[in-house]
């Protein structure tokens, strides 16, 4: 095993894309979309046997903190922390790095989003182990790359360079390459060229590094965040620095602040299945489908209707007649009916709703 492993789970989010099921206080990671557990619960369980819970920090925000604590009553209470202001992922990772450094300045640190669907836990842990060994043995920042299944314009991409050979990666059967550069979300034509090139991976926002490595990169590229890390990691100063300093940090993504500027970055190809489930269309692939491509989580009746997505939280009967390509979502206090091709605009709709329904 590599040095002791700690994990930072990023569990914020705005709760717009899955309205009306999601709300500001209940974003995607707090929903039971594809199983009996929420995506956050699945993320925590996926680390069992690899990272003990006392070494996991869940970072959420003030609007969602109560929901997270209610969802995870047996999780160490002090390890659930709410950001006092929204400052993007660079500040979040800096906070996590300081939290880990205060406990073990030589530890290996894993950063994971809380809202992904990953079914193969064994392959997931094997990939993280390979990344942890790579981070310890090479002193590089390591990112997990997802093999693209289509030319998505909605994901960032990592351009993969030559392979890097070391004993542990060979033993685990996981491919490790140099990361040549990060590419922002491309248009469809550029994404298709990435797929044809064959050496691009999706950037899923999963990272692994040795704590001294990431601290060094913060010092080189973002001195303000490095200073915050030093404050957070001082004995008995975590709460004070979080309360008084966090809201002043620059609002910048971790990719832009650090990953795109670092000299030594490796990409480990994910050996596991992965799904971002970023929309109702994506979640529909986990629902029951009838012979007319209607996807549903409930018992419903349809005549002369096709390619619809139906989600019901309350157990009433839903019937469709002569409609196609709709998304129909019913909760206890709201009903959404929209065209599938308008799903990206649901967040615009949410902004116009009464505050109590947002």
* Count of separate DSSP helical elements: 12
Q: Give the low-confidence spans.
A: none
This entry's quaternary arrangement is single chain
Strand content: 15-25%
Number of β-strand runs: 16
Helix content class: 25-40%
In total, how many domains does the architecture comprise? 2
Backbone shape = globular
Strand order of the largest sheet: 5-8-6-7-9
What's the gist of this structure?
Helix 3 packs parallel to helix 8.
Question: Please, could you describe this protein's structure?
Answer:
- The chain is globular, with a radius of gyration of 21 Å.
- With 358 residues, the chain is of the alpha/beta class.
- α7 packs across α8 (223-232).
- It has a five-stranded mixed barrel with strand order 5-8-6-7-9. A five-stranded mixed β-sheet has the order 10-11-13-15-16.
- 31% of the residues lie in helices and 24% in strands.
- The chain folds into two domains: 5-269, Spore Coat Polysaccharide Biosynthesis Protein SpsA, Chain A; 280-357, no CATH class.
Question: What keyword list fits this structure?
Answer:
358 residues; alpha/beta; Spore Coat Polysaccharide Biosynthesis Protein SpsA, Chain A; 5-stranded mixed beta barrel; 5-stranded mixed sheet; 12 helices; globular
């Amino acid at each position: 095993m590599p040095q002791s492993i700690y994990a930072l789970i990023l569990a914020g989010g705005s709760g717009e894309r899955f309205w009306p099921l999601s709300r500001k206080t209940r974003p995607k990671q707090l929903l039971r979309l594809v199983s009996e557990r929420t995506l956050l619960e699945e993320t925590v369980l996926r680390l069992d046997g690899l990272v003990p819970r006392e070494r996991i920090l869940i970072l959420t925000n003030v609007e969602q903190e109560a929901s997270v604590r209610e969802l995870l009553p047996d999780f160490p209470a002090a390890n659930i922390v709410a950001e006092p202001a929204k400052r993007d992922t660079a500040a979040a990772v800096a906070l996590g790095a300081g939290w880990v450094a205060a406990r073990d300045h030589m530890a290996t640190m894993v950063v994971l989003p809380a809202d992904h669907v990953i079914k193969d836990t064994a392959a997931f842990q094997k990939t993280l182990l390979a990344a942890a060994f790579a981070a310890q043995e090479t002193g590089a920042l390591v990112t997990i790359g997802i093999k693209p299944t289509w030319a998505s314009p909605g994901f960032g991409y990592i351009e993969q360079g030559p392979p890097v050979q070391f004993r542990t990666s060979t033993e685990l059967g996981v491919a490790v390459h140099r990361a040549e550069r990060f590419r922002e979300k491309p248009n469809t034509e550029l994404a298709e060229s990435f797929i044809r090139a064959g050496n691009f991976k999706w950037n899923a926002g999963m990272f692994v590094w040795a704590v001294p490595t990431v601290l060094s990169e913060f010092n080189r590229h973002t001195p303000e965040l490095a200073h915050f890390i030093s404050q957070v990691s001082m004995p008995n100063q975590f709460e004070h620095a979080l309360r008084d300093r966090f809201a002043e940090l620059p609002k910048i993504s971790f990719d832009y602040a650090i990953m795109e500027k670092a000299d030594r970055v490796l990409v480990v190809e994910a050996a596991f299945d992965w799904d971002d489930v970023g929309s109702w269309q994506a979640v529909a692939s986990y629902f029951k489908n009838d012979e007319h491509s209607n996807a549903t989580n409930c018992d419903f009746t349809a005549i002369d209707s096709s390619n619809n997505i139906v989600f019901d939280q309350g157990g009433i009967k839903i019937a469709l007649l002569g409609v196609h390509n709709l998304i129909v979502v019913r909760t206890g206090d709201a009903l959404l009916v929209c065209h599938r091709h308008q799903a990206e605009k649901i967040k615009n709709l949410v902004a116009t709703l009464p505050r109590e329904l947002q």
